[in-house]
Amino acid sequence: MSSRLNEIRMRDPFVLEVPSGGFVLFGTTDTNLWGGPATGFDCFTSEDLVTWEGPLQAFRPPAGFWADTQFWGPEVHGYDGRFFMLATFASSNPESGPRGVQVLVADEPTGPYVPWSDGPLTPRDRPCLDGTLFIDDEGGPWLVFSRGAEGVPGGAAGPADGEMYARPLSRDLKEAAGPAVLLFTASAAPWSKPLWFPDGVEPPEELNLAKDPLFTDGPFLIRSEGGRLHMLWSSFGEEGYAMGVATSAGGLITGPWVQREQPLWARNGGHGMIFSDPQGVRRLVFHWPNETPDERVKLISVDVSDRGIQLRT
């Protein structure tokens, strides 16, 4: 079945450029995405970024899989001759532990993907989400992820504060290779505001969010041609869900990270990533608007330079 992007309902889109040609679009595709029983992840393929074929079944949980809900934010990277998916999973069984990011693997870009790591590679003391892969200058892989403010009540100092972390991984992406390192908190960005919903829109009860939390999600890392390391990430701003940019002052994944004063995209859309089209133009893909079930995939052009990430006008 052929579709245009404005016809595909999807959150957290991620576009993989296939080495042999063409593109694969992944994202959160479950109907019961907040807390109902999960189905898996679907994907779509395209040769021109205009017409997309699908959906194709990229991942369906095998028998005995530990998670059964909140299948979110799949992203796929070609690495060591195979394709690795990093995705968020949760279980309705408290004994299975909190939500976390697990690594899956496939021999083909569209899958089928199967579990690779033994459960989540994020810390198990608090719910985590939205993992992205970063390879440092020595070839060492890192998992960059968000740790939510859920279950952490705000006090006199203000709302609960979401956090962004990086954790080194083993070369085969199967295991954590060290402790997680705090990169920054949501409150470090001047544009980040406490979570809010428009009048008449109730937040999903299944999220069990602390009252008025600041939060981080949707990290994606990219280097400029001059070697500057930038991170695209999402939170809430004055106009709803938004994307901001942070830059590593030292050029390392561990930072220190300097936040851009204003969001890159402020108008009720986010969880984006950047890739290059066949003409070499940088493209930002994200979901907009943020309300379920109206989310659609949006694609716009951007410039990436030592100064940061800018929307093309």
Overall spatial form: globular
Number of strands: 21
Report strand order across the widest sheet.
1-5-4-3-2
Strand content: 35-45%
Structure description:
- By secondary structure, this protein is mostly beta strands.
- It has one domain: Glycosyl hydrolase domain, family 43 (Tachylectin-2, Chain A, 5 Propeller).
- The chain contains no helices and 21 strands.
- It has strands at 2-3, 11-17, 23-28, 41-46, 52-59, 69-79, 82-90, 100-106, 114-115, 128-135, 141-147, 163-168, 181-185, 217-223, 229-237, 240-248, 257-259, 270-276, 282-288, 296-305, 308-311.
- Strands 1-5-4-3-2 form a 5-stranded antiparallel beta sheet, with no helix packed on it. Strands 6-7-8-9 form a 4-stranded antiparallel beta sheet, with no helix packed on it.
- The radius of gyration is 18 Å and the shape is globular.
- The two termini are 33 Å apart.
- Residues 153-157 have low confidence and may be disordered.
A few lines on this structure:
The protein is built from no helices and 21 strands. It has 313 residues and is mainly β. It has a single domain, classed as Glycosyl hydrolase domain, family 43 (Tachylectin-2, Chain A).
